[in-house]
């Protein structure tokens, strides 16, 4: 019986030995960001506890919703600042 080996590439071997080299790819909110490894292209995001977790389709949808809510909040706060400065 043959055992199948995981898909090993040079970049995954490098990350397994030296660790991932993550860069921020998207700022969802002040506390939530999405990250991507420069070598193996693995994607992560911060979860509700602030820990890094794999970016699944569910987390992508959650991040999109959070980003929309945050944008609306920022627009409203800017309008309030402008309205208060007029008076």
**Fraction of residues in helix:** 40-55%
Residue stretches low in confidence (pLDDT < 50, at least 5 long) are none
Order of helices and strands: HEEEEH
Number of structural units classed as domains: 1
Tally of DSSP β-strands: 4
Overall morphology: elongated
Cα radius of gyration in angstroms = 19 Å
Largest sheet: 4 strands, antiparallel
The secondary structure category is alpha+beta
Number of helices: 2
Give the neighbour order of strands across the main sheet.
1-2-3-4
Strand content: 15-25%
Q: Compute the separation of the termini in Å.
A: 80 Å
Set out the fold topology.
Blueprint: H1 10-18, E1 22-27, E2 33-37, E3 43-46, E4 52-54, H2 57-86
Antiparallel strand pairs: 1-2, 2-3, 3-4
Q: What would you note in describing this structure?
A:
By secondary structure, the protein is of the alpha+beta class. The chain has one domain (22-86). The protein has helices spanning 10-18, 57-86, and strands at 22-27, 33-37, 43-46, 52-54. A hairpin with a 5-residue loop joins strand 1 (22-27) and strand 2 (33-37). The longest helix is centred in the last third of the chain and has 30 residues, at 57-86. The protein is elongated and about 70 Å long. The mean pLDDT is 88.
């Amino acid at each position: 019986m043959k055992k199948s080996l995981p898909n090993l590439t040079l970049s995954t071997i490098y990350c397994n030995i030296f660790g991932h080299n993550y860069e921020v790819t998207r700022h969802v909110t002040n506390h939530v960001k999405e990250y991507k490894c420069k070598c193996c292209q693995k994607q992560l995001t911060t979860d509700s506890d602030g820990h890094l977790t794999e970016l699944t389709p569910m987390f992508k949808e959650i991040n999109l919703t959070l980003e929309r809510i945050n944008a609306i909040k920022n627009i409203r706060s800017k309008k309030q600042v402008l309205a208060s400065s007029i008076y």
